[in-house]
Structure formats: C-alpha cells, structure tokens
Design a protein that fits this description.
Oligomer: single chain
Largest sheet: 2 strands, antiparallel
Number of helices: 10
Helix content: 55-70%
Distance between the termini: 48 Å
Strand content: 5-15%
C-alpha cells in the first residue's frame, strides 16, 4: 500500500480539531516507511527485487524488524505520540498520532505478502492482497478517495490546494501501479520513495495552512457575534 496509508491522516484531521496538523499526520501515516527507506540506505534493514514475487510489485521486503514489526511500529508510534505531546501539550493529539502511525502496520498486513512480524523473528505475516491487483487497487482508491471526501466535508477553505494534493497523490500512485517496475534495489529506489513522501507532505502543509476545521470556523463566528 502507498497512498492508502494517508487515509488515516485525512480521517484524523477531519475527525478532531485537536488532531495534529495535516502535514504532521502525513508524516505519521508513513513514519515507518520514512524509517525503512532511511534504514535501507545505511544497511540496517534490507530489501531486494525478485520479479514475480507478487502480482503487483517485485519487492522482497525480507528484513525490516525495526520498522515493520508490530512492536517496532508501536515504538515509532510512541515516539511520535511523545513528539505530539511535547508540541501541543495535549494528550489528545498524542493519542491520535499514535494510532495514525499504528494504522500503517494494519494496512500493510492486509496488502503485503508474508513479510511482517510481530516482534522480529522468523514467523512472517501478511494476507497478500498484492496478489489480487484489482482488489488491492480498489481498496486503495476507496480508502484514499473516501477519506479525502470526508476531510473535505469537515473542513473549509480554498478548493485548489486539496485538489492539487489529491491529484499529485493519484498520479504518484498510478506510476507506482502501472509504471516500469524497479530492476534492482539501491539508493536510487530508496531516495525516490523518500522524495515522494516529502513532496506529498509539503503539499499537505499547504493544504493544512489554507483549510480549517468547520468547528473552528463555527467557534470563531460565534465569538464574533457575542
């Protein structure tokens, strides 16, 4: 799963005006992949290209206990929650942030071949939706478009920034699905993944700066009417 992970960020941003900012939630939703591709650059975790290993992509993610074990993801979530608590001095954004990070492992469990673990070790988990392309594509589109619509319904502001964001996300996803498959694992692949996360997060920062939760707007109007 790629852009589907950001569905948790859209839901959190829409559900509560006390949630972390949208770009912060975008980082949280892909935090363990930020960690994974950084760790692969320095050799701490490992992947390789094995053509045909799944119907949708050739990536064999064979060693990633620090980011994609359930325990590892929970630790990343706790670190993110502590950051949110320090940043906003409020337990609510910390709890929201933790579960946004944790959602990454749950969504990967549905789509990945068995390459996830509970706490490292040899036993691998994964329901393998990547071997059923149209089911995986449908799930990703339903998640991201449904949660984006929910985010739009709960916020107010200019329409252009969010439309640009979702357009860029869908274009990147289409390239991921239908573009040329990588032929080898290496720095170019890892840096491309990190760059894609950065681009979407920067556009999300623009969206977050130009849209407001409807409850915030309502409170501001009520304050002015007093």
């Amino acid at each position: 799963m790629f852009i589907g992970h950001f569905s948790a960020a859209f839901v959190a941003a829409a559900a509560s005006r006390r949630a972390p900012s949208l770009p912060t939630l975008f980082v949280g939703a892909q935090l363990v992949d930020w960690g994974f591709f950084t760790f692969t650059l320095i050799g701490l975790e490992q992947m390789r290209v094995v053509p045909g290993i799944t119907a949708m992509n050739p990536l064999d993610l064979y060693f990633m206990p620090y980011t994609h074990s359930f325990l590892g993801t929970a630790v990343w979530g706790l670190a993110f929650a502590l950051f949110a608590l320090a940043r906003w001095r409020d337990v609510v954004p910390a709890v929201i942030g933790f579960f946004v990070v944790l959602s990454h492992w749950i969504l990967d469990l549905v789509t990945h071949r068995p390459d996830l673990t509970v706490a490292g070790g040899e036993h691998k988990l994964g329901l393998g939706l990547w071997d059923y392309p149209w089911a995986a594509i449908s799930l990703e589109l339903v998640l991201i478009l449904g949660t984006f619509a929910y985010f739009m319904s709960r916020t107010r502001g200019p329409i252009a920034p969010p439309l640009i964001l979702i357009s860029v996300m869908l274009i990147m996803q289409a390239i991921n699905w239908f573009g040329p498959e990588p032929t080898e694992a290496g720095p170019a692949l890892y840096l491309t993944a990190l760059l894609s996360f950065l681009i979407m997060t920067l556009i999300a920062a623009w969206v977050g700066a130009t849209r407001w939760h409807k409850r915030e707007v309502g409170l501001a109007v009520a304050s002015l009417q007093r």
